[in-house]
Write a sequence for this structure.
């Protein structure tokens, strides 16, 4: 079997159709109908990706993701009938990598699952020892090991935060639109929510900036997007 997906969905009809499509694409799928069963399955055998509904009988997919994110960096995709910005933001703040709203095309879900698995695998393959370091007097980035330090201390970043930071830091002073950043880090889907970029930018600023409201590293270029500036450089 292929990569393992843990699907958490209490609607049997939705779960059945997703299982069919995911398995047709060569993925191994385990199904749980609530957070307790899902967390038990996760602890027994860590999957390659978590695909979870938000509203579940014994809690929420957000709570489940929060517990799992504290133990693993596997990709997490939320599915929900709700489209409210606050729920989307909350899911991404908890370390979610993508958010799909119902109703959806099962083939689109499979494509987005595959995209997250590819990106996660590519990130794992690049974690090789290296002496390359990008730094200024406050932050240093090890692009090959993916380690980030602030004032000499390792910085805890979620997978997508780390990918976004490394992508921009490798291209200092280059301005990227929200659409370009989403396409590079998350992959382009016609029904994707671009707000995920702004959420991750805001979370990154809280972690790397001395003054998040007056950012020095990730700078907003009004009307265009964002650019990364090293502290020692002129931006």
């Amino acid at each position: 079997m292929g990569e393992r997906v843990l699907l958490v969905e209490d609607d049997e009809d939705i779960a059945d159709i997703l299982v069919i499509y995911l398995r047709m694409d060569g993925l191994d799928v385990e199904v749980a109908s609530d957070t307790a069963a899902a967390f038990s399955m996760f602890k027994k055998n860590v999957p390659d990706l978590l695909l979870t509904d938000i509203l579940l009988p014994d809690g929420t997919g957000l709570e489940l993701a929060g517990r799992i994110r504290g133990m693993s960096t596997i990709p997490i995709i939320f599915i929900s009938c709700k489209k409210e910005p606050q729920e989307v933001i909350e899911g991404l703040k908890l370390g979610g990598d993508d958010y799909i709203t119902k109703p959806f095309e099962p083939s689109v879900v499979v494509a987005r699952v595959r995209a997250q698995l590819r990106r996660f695998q590519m990130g794992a393959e690049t974690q090789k020892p290296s002496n390359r370091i990008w730094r200024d007097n406050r932050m240093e980035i090890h692009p090959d090991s993916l380690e980030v330090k602030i004032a000499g201390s390792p910085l805890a970043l979620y997978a997508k935060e780390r990918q976004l930071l490394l992508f921009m830091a490798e291209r200092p002073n280059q301005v990227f639109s929200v659409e370009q950043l989403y396409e590079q880090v998350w992959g382009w889907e016609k029904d994707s929510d671009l707000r995920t970029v702004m959420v991750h930018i805001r979370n990154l600023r809280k972690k790397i900036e001395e003054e998040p409201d007056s950012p020095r590293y990730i700078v907003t270029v009004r009307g265009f997007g964002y650019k990364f500036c090293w502290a020692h450089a002129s931006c």
Q: What stands out?
A: The longest strand covers residues 4-8.
